[in-house]
Amino acid sequence: MPVAGILVALLLGLFIMSLVIDQNAARQSVEAQIRAATGLELVVHGKTEMSVFPSSYMTLHQVSLKGEGDGATALTVDALTANLSLLPILMRRFEVANLSLLNPHITVTRKADGQSNWTPIVDALARNMKPNTATPVSFSEIRI
Predict the structure, then answer these.
(1) Distance CA 118, CA 121 (A)
(2) Residue 61 in contact with residue 34, Cβ under 8 Å?
(3) Cα(132)–Cα(126) distance, integer angstroms
(4) Spatial CB neighbours of 21, under 8 Å, sequence gap ≥ 6
(5) 79 touches 102 (CB < 8 A)
(6) Could you report the per-residue pLDDT of 87-102, keeping only the tens digit for each?
(7) For every residue of the chain, which 3-state class applies, written as one string?
(8) The model's pTM
(9) How many Cβ atoms are within 10 Å of 26's Cβ, its own excluded?
(10) Is the dihedral of CA 14, 18, 20, 23 positive or negative?
(11) Are 34 and 75 in contact (CB under 8 A)?
(12) How large is the greatest C-alpha to C-alpha distance in the chain, in angstroms?
């Protein structure tokens, strides 16, 4: 019986925690991590959903990622889901474990020098995903 009591208390604690989490702070943290990894400006046009239990995630709807140089939209998605690591949430930190993109629309343009609008993005991802970098990215997977 004590194990059942502990399990019920744990589940109740997770449920209560999901009600008191600052969703705005979580959204800002997720957006900052995506910006750091891609070097793109994240713009959310739709609603935001967040869940801690039974799985921890944040879904941003109607999202576009714009290049910093020319400001052109490189990627739009119907929904971007950031799965969050559960243990850091208990310490009020929001770490993205991986990203899932629903219905992505990718815009690729080639410049006269042969480079594309994705060249800086790929360079930023490669630089930031390496271990032991100055700005390490906590997530290791982007699913489309």
Answers:
(1) 5
(2) no
(3) 13
(4) 50, 52, 89, 92
(5) yes
(6) 787 777 888 888 899 9
(7) CHHHHHHHHHHHHHHHHHHHCCHHHHHHHHHHHHHHHHCCEEEECCCEEEECCCCCEEEEEEEEEECCCCCCEEEEEEEEEEEECHHHHHCCCCCEEEEEEECCEECCCECCCCCECCHHHHHHHHHHHCCCCCCCCCCCCEEC
(8) 0.76
(9) 21
(10) positive
(11) no
(12) 71
Residue 123 in tokens: 């360079």
pLDDT, tens digit, 9 for 90 and up, residues 99-117: 899 999 988 888 888 888 7
Lowest-pLDDT range of 17-21, 26-30, 111-115, 135-139: 135-139
Look up residue 42 and give its two tokens.
């994240």
